[in-house]
Prior knowledge:
With about 230 residues, chain A is an alpha/beta fold.
Amino acid sequence: MDENAIAILGGTGDQGLGLALRFARAGRPVVIGSRKPERAVEAALQVRATVPGASVTGLENGDAAELAPIVILSVPFEHCASTLKGIQKRLRAGQIVVSMGVPLATAVGDGATRMLGIWQGSCAELLATLVPEGVEVVSAFQNVSAHRLQHLETEVECDVVVSGPMAARKRVMALCGLVPGLRGVDGGPLANARIVEAVTALLIGLNARYKVPEGIGIRFTGLPSA
Amino acid sequence: MDENAIAILGGTGDQGLGLALRFARAGRPVVIGSRKPERAVEAALQVRATVPGASVTGLENGDAAELAPIVILSVPFEHCASTLKGIQKRLRAGQIVVSMGVPLATAVGDGATRMLGIWQGSCAELLATLVPEGVEVVSAFQNVSAHRLQHLETEVECDVVVSGPMAARKRVMALCGLVPGLRGVDGGPLANARIVEAVTALLIGLNARYKVPEGIGIRFTGLPSA
């Protein structure tokens, strides 16, 4: 396992691919995972075409998950639990799973500006019940626009609230610094994912009302600059 | 009733007093309400001492509510419903009640970074069940730091998500423009107050982790500037 590698399961989707492009551009080895390995290979080729010299590979999700200390789960909410269950046995103590899922009501045929109630409180907390011992779940990246991630020529002006166990969340906050414009913000315990995930539904509504298909982001004001 | 007046019930509290100071500074007549009229009078004197020439009066909550088209409810969450019940009969069709309450778990002896579940979904939606016909509830101002409101010499760098029935929320969004730095953002239907209220709990945690007693705010990035 390459200590610098970042695995992105669902890295063929808009947001996952955006993160793959940005992390590759920052010089980090990227492993793209997909349910169908051929789609992962295709996405890896796409990243390499955009970021010449990028170290990026495409693999089936379980194979991808074995290759990086941080495994970002970038699949639609309704597939988060099943994807994690599918790779459970491939994870080792010390790894971090990053939850990006948002329980939008679209999962049950309702609208994207409304949320489902999740028994555990949030997608991230649901996933935390499914990882093997010693693997930690961190919540991050939900509110980052896929469109803005994919447009490498511009900064992604957005704060990323990172929640989860302290040491793990510090490591994920550091990842944010790899993407120009992104800033990792210490979001405290994992339960705060309940709020951060819901902010995505609010942003989707704002995007529609203000007609900003590129996606509206958030910044916190008054944070110490250090 | 003065069409330009703004009533602030609980205007003796930190956040309510901050709004009173800012609206008075902007030249709007302010009516401060309190359960105890003598405390309201005291707060009004305080506003006049800080903003010379301000048009500000202090009255018992029910009397205050009759004097302005927009009535801001700035009392702790646990007193929101009872305060509104106490003034119900004084409200008239066409008035707007602004809900600022946040169901923090402090109301039941738990911490301020956690939320209570409200049957109706949010404080604002709870209050919407208590107003007379023709009176509309709008959710706003939850995330604005009391400290920053009270320091008139500096801008309050914060977006205010305003949710509720369309015409009413446009009127409350316009109020935000009276305070330098505040920007009213169209937060859509009242149910979005569920998200906006919860953001307050997130901000309280950030204030603690980042040691910013003055209060951290939020801005949305990518909004059209017009």
